[in-house]
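Lecture notes, unit on protein representations.

Consider one protein chain, 97 amino acids long.
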Amino acid sequence: MPANAVETASVSSTADFKSLEEKILRTIELLKSAREAKAAVERDASRLREQLNEREEEIDTMRQEMVGLRREREEVRTRVEKMLNQIEALNAEESAR
């Protein structure tokens, strides 16, 4: 094998090794980026789950308040109707005299 053939083979395999090394380094960087993105997404998902739980608790509280207010409104309506009936009865008695 001539000397320049050995040099060409050596340069070629050095270039191949350099190319492989660059590909590996790019792959490592891509992997790091993907892991960082995954961690960010997991943090966001966790934060959103917490917010969802808080909103569900608020909704439950509001539902309970709404039920209480409806019950109270119905009680007030019943009392007002009772008072109106009493006023009507008094007016009817006045008119009958």
